[in-house]
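Please, structure for the following, as tokens.
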Amino acid sequence: MRKLTQTLEQRFSSLFSSRQHRLARPLWRGLARLNQIGAIERLWQGCRHLTGLAFVDAVLRALDCRYLVDQPKYWGSRSLDYLWIGIGAWLRAHPHVRHLFGAVSISAALPLPAREWLVAYYAHYYGFASSARALHPFCYSAAPPTFDGLDSDAGMRLLKHNLAAVGARVPTLYKQYTELCEPGGARFLAFGVDSEFADSLDGLIWVDLDRVTPKKRQRYLGAEAAAATPPRSVAA
């Protein structure tokens, strides 16, 4: 890791010396672990004029990190952790922000039965009625899988069993997001197919930062945020 960091700092010295982009440095270090130095170089040329969240957003989008961190060869690495450290740095500088939302992807390479079980599980246990509608909604091939009468833990065991039957498992991003928050803090508003991203299955997730677990709050938002007692104004 030290060698990657040194390479990154040598090739992008202005990034690490510039106060303007200090909040995104953890993101760059995380991406360096993915051996994307060449892509970072191209990206830097195109977004060096951006600041704040716009800069962080450009990093995530241009490098397709939602795809990279969800690939099995990167599971178990700290890449996603580094990305959250970068996002947390921006959030500490903007404490008025309470909610985050965005797409969480599942590769179209995953067998259809696995995608159907995943959507059914997360819609059942983490779904939330909203006005959000996917442009290209995900459709089941037949009746959707059911989890009637099961709590979330029993439902997860059933999900894992059925995923294993087709050689799949729960994607890291879905696991990480739902473990980030206390109950009610992470909700999926809609599921759709992204034709511009290799027909990946995207779940629109909404995160209430007031419901981040104490451990995650300490790590990503800092000791001061962890010590604060957040309001609980959003119904689970």
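Residues 63-70, 229-236 have pLDDT under 50 and may be disordered. The radius of gyration is 19 Å.
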